[in-house]
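Thread amino acids onto this structure.
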């Protein structure tokens, strides 16, 4: 179920299956305020950081119904991507493009985003460990893929180097947040037009 506010860039997405129960509310024009409860500490940390640096307000309550962490992480990525997608509406007046390079101690990551509705993701996270805090490496990768796919955009995430996998993920999520913050920003010079020569996003 998706509820949209056509006067503001907000959305609410609810996903209830035999595997998960998730509700997310977002405001693209917020202040980076978040209230996150996934039951997975490192995932909470990642989403809080994303909210803070993208300036997107996020309220997220997520519960596993089958006790399988992979399902919960995947579906949280799906719901967050859908929420941002719906809040963007027709994507009129937005900058469309965003990029950022963000360090986290010894690690540094770059992210480039195109909010055209052609899904493509390139991830080069350079993770060494099989598990980072309380999430497996493959589930972290899948979270990013699920988010990007449901946001319906093109996003390239590259960790250039680093020795600490926690720091690599933090630099990547912050770079994604800052790049998205730029891409979703309203450009008053667009005067209601879509930022594309095709006439559709």
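Threaded sequence (201 positions):
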């Amino acid at each position: 179920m998706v509820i949209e506010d056509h006067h503001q860039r907000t959305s609410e997405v609810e996903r209830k299956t035999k595997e998960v129960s998730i509700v997310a509310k977002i405001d693209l024009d917020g202040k980076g305020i978040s209230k996150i409860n996934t039951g997975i500490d490192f995932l909470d940390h990642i989403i809080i950081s994303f909210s803070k640096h993208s300036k997107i307000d996020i309220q997220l309550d997520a519960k596993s119904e089958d006790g399988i962490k992979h399902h919960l992480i995947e579906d949280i990525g799906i719901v967050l991507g859908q929420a941002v997608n719906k809040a963007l509406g027709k994507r009129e007046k937005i900058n469309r493009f965003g990029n950022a390079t963000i360090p986290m101690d010894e690690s540094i990551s770059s992210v480039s985003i195109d909010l055209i509705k052609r899904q493509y993701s390139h991830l080069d996270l350079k993770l060494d460990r099989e598990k980072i805090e309380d999430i497996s490496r493959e589930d972290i990768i899948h979270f990013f893929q699920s988010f990007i796919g449901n946001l319906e955009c093109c996003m390239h995430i590259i960790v250039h180097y680093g020795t600490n996998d926690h720091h690599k993920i933090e630099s990547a999520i912050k770079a994604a947040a800052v790049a998205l913050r730029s891409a979703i920003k309203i450009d008053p010079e667009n005067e209601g037009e879509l930022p594309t020569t095709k006439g559709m996003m």
